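User: I've been trying to design a sequence by hand for this structure and keep getting stuck. Would you show me what you'd pick, starting by listing the structure so we're on the same page?

Assistant: Good idea, let's start from the same input. This is the structure you sent:
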């Protein structure tokens, strides 16, 4: 006979909630479990004991029966002990604190044991009938979970390590809010909305011009779908959520016979004013709905319970379709009430709260909203946002504001200065010729392109001669040039950089004349300016400005290591002539400090064959090969034993594709350089700067600066981070104005087996080695250098094609350039751009771009 149970209580996981405990013959009493006052589990036969739960070396205890993890389900068996505490060693299956056999968080019992002591299926059948699904049993079936849906469980991301422990802990506040994920199914349908002219408002080839009307189309689409959902009886109880384009989610399955469902919808015409006694004018639309069938199940159902499975350690890959569904559902309501732009929502200002910007623009305020997976549950990220909108006014008044003129004084035709006339000439040159050609083509009259006459830019040619003569006469390695102020400096600066770096091979440093004298003392130069110039010149000439102290250097630097940074710039300042061309830049360290970097630049297509944005660096293998050879030259034929790759500009949806393509490209480069089994371990890290996650210290005494921001070096790797990925937020810089914006780092591949502390320390220390300043910066310098190099290459294109100083024949030089450019194939245009951005060879091993 078992001994009589003895009562005991203990504290649970959080917030002093009491937890139960006990083994099969131990533990007594009841206690509260993990959340919401649910009672913790106990043992089959009760038992005694008293102890505390999960953290801080508190002892586990207790026993007896109790309720399970969710929905008042009772646990079957218990297990005492604490996680990380003295109750039970970490990893024991009989623990009650946090282990496999826990019941709730803080008591014993099976993790998902039902009240009837049968297995709980976390994937209940949703409303409506479903096709037969293949049963797939995952590892972890010992938890009592059997998944009845064939899901892709192919997470090749590095395993998430334990959180870092270095440094002093401070309590932070965040603008991320936990949400309770729903259960069951939602059903995914493809939407096509056609107007009465049979033109689709949801499909079609996207062009630069069509982007201007995206907001108008999505607003109209939402009006149509809202009318459909509210008036058509087929959608009663469907609770639809629409994204404004191609996706409709419904809570219940629609009765679609055949491949699609077609519905006619009538909505009031835009700007139509209803007149009493008459029918309001209506527009007719046809809506076509098609189920989006999944490959795994041949069904359009999206299982929201996969979110629960992630947090139950059953699924090892994040369910992107379920996260997308949550995002669409939460955005549906705000999109109907506010004006959506991207992931933000804006509302018009009140008449008493206007913020005009001039030029017919004003500021609208709103908020950003996004959904992602947190460590313990899905989270919603909310942040204030603002953007510029055109003011709502009469068109004549809006035009007057844009042109900054007074309509009342238009009859007084004043004189125009030369610089004003030149700006108009540059903008509207050849308008008559281009209009004539356009109209003639519509009427069937073919006009051949203007004869392409070879021209040259005398200003650019003279700059090459000046710099070339200076280099030859004085055997100069560096030229310091003083530029005039005003609008002319930008054009001259571009000429100098393009001539020096693509034609002459000379390192240059430019200074604006007005900065040569101190504002207070006109007789001397500012000491701050001199310091900045010296840092830039020293870096360009191969010097070292900042380096890590040998005693504080991360362990990875004990042997040769190469730090790589990469970025792709999609927007070219050259305008239409190079539309569709992106510039990729990759830099790599050459020394152990690391402070010296080499660079490789390539032009590539902006979109792939599917017309999707091409974020992959196409020739990364060749670029890394060039950088490895540069490393060999600067280290006396030593090869890097390890590679750490920081990649900028990749969204979470592109992680798998970037990891697959670019990791294999780096490996190919290593084998190509030395074909003797050279395979250095590689760590591939994505750096994300464009996000809306913010942190503030809960106690102002932990803050720094006037704004009391989080101190530099603050690292967050729990709660708001991904439940499966190795990621963290880190604020490396001092916030001087506004709220500090940390960088988000996600490790896509890790052969070096970094611990959280080691990688976070390496990243933070690198941020102190930026050549252009003496303080730490927000992200690692390789990322900044790659961005600067890509931007500099774009300037070469801007100056050559955008200059108005070249000669013209018959007023058609620009038109002939456009005709010539349009006659080139995409491959020819790509080769042309690559030739234009190529620098002199030896400059590739210097930091000319800082």
């Amino acid at each position: 006979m078992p001994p009589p149970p003895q009562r005991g209580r203990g504290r649970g996981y959080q917030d002093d909630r009491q937890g139960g405990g006990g083994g099969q013959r131990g533990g007594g009493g009841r206690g509260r479990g993990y959340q919401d006052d649910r009672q913790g589990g106990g043992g089959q036969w009760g038992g005694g004991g008293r102890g505390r739960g999960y953290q801080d070396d508190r002892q586990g205890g207790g026993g007896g029966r109790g309720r399970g993890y969710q929905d008042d389900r009772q646990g079957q068996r218990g297990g005492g002990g604490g996680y990380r505490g003295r109750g039970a060693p970490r990893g024991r299956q009989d623990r009650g604190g946090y282990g496999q056999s826990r019941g709730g968080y803080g008591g014993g019992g099976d993790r998902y044991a039902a009240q009837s002591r049968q297995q709980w299926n976390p994937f209940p059948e949703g409303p409506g009938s479903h096709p037969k699904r293949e049963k797939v049993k995952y590892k972890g079936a010992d938890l009592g979970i059997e998944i009845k849906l064939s899901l892709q469980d192919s997470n090749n991301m590095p395993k998430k390590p334990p959180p870092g422990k270095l440094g002093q802990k401070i309590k932070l506040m965040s603008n991320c809010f936990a949400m309770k994920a729903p259960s069951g199914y939602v059903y995914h349908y493809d939407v096509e909305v056609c107007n009465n002219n049979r033109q689709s408002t949801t499909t079609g080839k996207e062009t630069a011009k069509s982007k201007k009307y995206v907001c108008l189309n999505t607003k109209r689409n939402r009006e149509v779908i809202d009318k459909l959902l509210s008036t058509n009886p087929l959608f009663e109880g469907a609770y639809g959520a629409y994204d404004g384009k191609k996706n409709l989610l419904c809570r219940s399955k629609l009765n679609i016979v055949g491949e699609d469902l077609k519905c006619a919808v009538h909505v009031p015409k835009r700007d139509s004013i209803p007149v009493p006694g008459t029918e309001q004018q209506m527009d007719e639309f046809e809506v076509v709905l098609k189920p989006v069938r999944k490959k795994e199940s041949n069904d359009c159902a999206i299982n929201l319970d996969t979110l629960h499975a992630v947090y139950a350690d059953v699924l090892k890959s994040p369910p992107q379709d379920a996260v997308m569904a949550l995002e669409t559902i939460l955005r549906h309501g705000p999109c109907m009430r506010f004006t959506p732009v991207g992931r933000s929502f804006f509302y018009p200002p009140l008449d008493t709260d206007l913020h005009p910007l001039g030029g017919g623009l004003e500021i609208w305020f709103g908020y950003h909203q996004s959904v992602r997976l947190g460590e313990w549950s899905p989270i919603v990220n909310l942040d204030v946002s603002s953007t510029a909108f055109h003011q709502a006014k009469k068109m004549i008044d809006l035009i007057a504001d844009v042109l900054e003129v007074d309509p009342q004084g238009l009859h007084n035709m004043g004189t125009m200065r030369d610089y004003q006339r030149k700006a108009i000439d540059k903008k509207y040159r050849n308008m008559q010729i281009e209009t004539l050609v356009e109209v003639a083509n519509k009427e069937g009259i073919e006009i051949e392109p203007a004869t392409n006459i070879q021209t040259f830019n005398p200003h650019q040619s003279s700059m090459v001669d000046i710099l070339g003569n200076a280099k030859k006469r004085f055997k100069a390695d560096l030229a310091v040039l003083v530029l005039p102020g005003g609008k002319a400096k930008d054009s001259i600066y571009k000429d100098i950089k393009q001539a020096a770096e693509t034609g002459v091979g000379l390192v240059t440093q430019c200074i604006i004349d007005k900065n040569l004298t101190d504002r207070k003392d006109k007789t001397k130069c500012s000491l701050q300016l001199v310091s900045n110039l010296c840092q830039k010149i020293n870096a360009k000439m191969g010097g070292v400005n900042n380096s890590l102290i040998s005693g504080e250097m991360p362990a990875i630097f004990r042997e040769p290591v190469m730090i790589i940074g990469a970025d792709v710039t999609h927007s070219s300042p050259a305008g239409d002539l190079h539309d569709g061309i992106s510039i990729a830049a990759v830099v790599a360290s050459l020394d152990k400090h690391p402070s010296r970097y080499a660079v490789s630049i390539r032009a590539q297509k902006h979109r792939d064959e599917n017309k999707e944005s091409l974020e992959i660096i196409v020739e990364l293998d060749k670029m890394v090969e060039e950088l490895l050879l540069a490393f060999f030259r600067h280290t006396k034929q030593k090869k890097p034993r390890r590679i750490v790759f920081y990649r900028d500009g990749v969204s979470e949806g592109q992680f798998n594709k970037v990891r697959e393509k670019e990791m294999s490209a780096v490996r190919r480069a290593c084998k190509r350089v030395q074909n003797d089994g050279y395979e250095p371990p590689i760590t591939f890290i994505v750096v994300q700067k464009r996000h809306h996650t913010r942190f503030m210290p809960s106690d102002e005494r932990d803050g720094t600066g006037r704004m009391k921001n989080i101190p530099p070096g603050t690292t967050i790797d729990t709660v708001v981070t991904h439940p499966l990925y190795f990621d963290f937020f880190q604020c490396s810089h001092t916030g001087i104005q506004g709220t500090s914006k940390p960088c988000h780092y996600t490790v896509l591949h890790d052969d070096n087996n970094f611990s959280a502390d080691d990688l976070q320390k390496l990243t933070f220390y690198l941020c102190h080695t930026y050549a252009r300043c003496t303080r730490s910066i927000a992200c690692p310098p390789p990322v900044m250098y790659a961005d600067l190099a890509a931007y500099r290459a774009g300037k070469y294109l801007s100056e050559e094609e955008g200059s108005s100083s070249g000669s013209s024949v018959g007023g058609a030089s620009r038109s002939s350039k456009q005709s010539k450019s349009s006659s080139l194939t995409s491959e020819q245009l790509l080769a042309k751009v690559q030739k234009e951005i190529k620098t002199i060879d030896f400059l590739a091993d210097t930091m000319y771009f800082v």
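That's my pick for every position. To get oriented when you compare it with your attempt: The longest strand covers residues 361-373. Residues 781-802 form the longest helix (22 residues).
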